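In the design runs reported in the main text, the only information available to the sequence generator was the tokenized backbone. The following block is the verbatim input for one such run; it is reproduced so that readers can re-run the procedure and compare outputs position by position.
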């Protein structure tokens, strides 16, 4: 094989083997890599799934900070996956309905249909206490850092930053 062939040939990349100290869990729905961040008390697994608008970062808590077992959160995630598109639609609708009734946060002519089209879920977290969080890049309103938390008891909390950089936290 000549130099040109070596530089420009299209050979398949070999799969990257995990480092010796990495913990990887392979499931039919994805490959999850363990990470620990003791300074922020995060011990869990991370992966990306494909959503309607692109990739969604998924975080799954471990069952406790002292273990790498995460069966509770993997179970909650599997429940989510069983009806993924409907669940994404439902949480997007909850968030958009909140902003729909705040005209000062909406572009002129914005309506529910446009908001649903512009909603972009980019992050989900499943936690050992039963809470599930959904982070949005965009919801079709003049806000940033939108985070919906569905508590284990069913209550919902919405956090966001408005165009004046003021943080808001409301129960909805």
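Verbatim output:
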């Amino acid at each position: 094989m000549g130099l040109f062939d070596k530089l420009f040939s299209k050979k398949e990349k070999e799969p990257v083997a995990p480092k010796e100290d990495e913990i990887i869990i392979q499931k039919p729905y994805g490959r999850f890599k363990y990470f620990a961040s003791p300074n922020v008390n995060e011990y869990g697994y991370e992966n990306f799934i494909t959503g309607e608008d692109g990739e969604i970062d998924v975080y799954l808590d471990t069952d406790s900070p002292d273990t790498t077992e995460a069966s509770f959160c993997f179970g909650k995630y599997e429940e989510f996956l069983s009806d993924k598109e409907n669940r994404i639609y439902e949480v997007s609708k909850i968030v958009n309905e909140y902003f729909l009734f705040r005209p000062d946060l909406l572009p002129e002519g914005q309506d529910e249909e446009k908001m649903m089209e512009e909603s972009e879920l980019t992050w989900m977290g499943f936690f050992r206490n039963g809470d599930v969080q959904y982070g949005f890049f965009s919801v079709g309103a003049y806000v940033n850092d939108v985070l919906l938390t569905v508590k284990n008891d069913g209550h919902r909390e919405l956090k966001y930053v408005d165009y004046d950089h003021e943080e808001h936290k409301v129960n909805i």
